[in-house]
Amino acid sequence: MSQAELAVDAKAALGEGPSWDERNGCLYWVNIEEKTLHTYDVAAQKTVASISVPSRIGAVVPRRSGGTVIVLEDGFYACDPATGELIFLGNPEGRKPNTRFNDGKCDAAGRFWAGTMSLDGTPGQGALYCLEPDLTIRTVLENVSCSNGLAWSPDNRTMYYIDSPTKKVMAYDYDLSTGEISNPRVVVEVTEPGAVPDGMTCDEEGMIWVALWGGYGIRRWNPATGELLLKVDVPSEQSSSCSFAGPDLDELYITSARTGISEASLANQPLAGGLYVYRSAVKGLPTYGFSG
After folding, report:
1. Tens of pLDDT, residues 210-266
2. What is the DSSP string of 194-241?
3. Cα(153)–Cα(90) distance, rounded to whole angstroms?
4. pTM of the model
5. Which residues of 35-69 are buried (b: 16+ CB within 10 A; e: fewer)?
6. Is the C-alpha dihedral spanning 52, 291, 90, 103 positive or negative?
7. Residue-wise over 105-123: b if at least 16 C-beta within 10 A, else e?
8. If 0-12 CB within 10 Å is exposed, 13-18 middle and 19+ buried, where does residue 182 land?
C-alpha cells in the first residue's frame, strides 16, 4: 500500500475530473454538485482560480486553441477557466431527460468523449457521446447507467471504459483515425466489498489506474492479465478520479467526495472531499486537449 498526500483540503461535495494543462502548469478539476471549476497551479501548490458555472459540471479538458471545454447538464461548452465565460458548442440529440453529464476525456486526435447518467439513479438512462473536432456529436454507447472513467493505451489501439454499476473495466479495440470502437471485453472486475470503479487513467507502461468509489483509494491493474499491481491509499472513502500531471507526468492527482457519507463517518475521514497527490515511480500519459 502506498499513500497519497493532501494537496487541497477542499471538502468538495463531489470532486471529479482532474485534467492536466501542460501549457500553463495547471490542473483543472470540478466540483459537480457545487457547480465549480477549479484551477490548481501544480508548481506553486495553490489554487489560482475557482469559477462558478450555471449547472452541474461533469468534466473539463484543455482546448488546444486556448481555454477549456466542459460539459454541463445541458451539453458541451467552451469555457474560459479564469473568467467563466461560456460558449455553447452542442447537446446530443435524443439524449434522455433527467440525465446529466459525468466524466469525460479527450483522445489523442482531440475528440472529447463524455457520458451521462440518470439524476435519480434509474439504470440504463445514460449514454457515451463523442464531440468531434467539427463540433458534431456522436452517440457511441447507449443503455449506460453511470458513465465514468475513460483511458487509452499508449499506442492508442485500445480504449478503456467504465460504467460504474457494472463494477467492470471494459476494453475496446480503438481506431484513432475514425474514433470507432469494437470488440468489447472485460479486463478488470472490481470485487472489493462496497467499492465501484469510477475515474481512470493510463500510464506509459500501459497499466490502468482506477479510482474506487467506496474503496479509499486508487488501484493499478495490468489490463492484459487483470493482475492488481498497486494500491494507493487515500484518506477519503469516496475517491472519484485521477490524472497524471506535473512537468514529468509523475504526480497522480486524485479527487474525492463527501456526498453520501454520514456525519459519523465524516468524523473519521475529515479530509474527505480533498484533492490529493501521489508521487509515482511510473510516468503517466499526456493529457490531450480538444482540437475543435
Report:
1. 999 999 999 999 999 999 999 999 999 999 999 999 999 999 999 999 998 999 999
2. T-EEEEEEEBTTS-EEEEEETTTEEEEE-TTT--EEEEEE-SSSEEEE
3. 28
4. 0.97
5. bbbbbbebeeeebebebebeebbbbbbbbbeebbb
6. negative
7. bbbeebbbbbbbbbeeeee
8. exposed
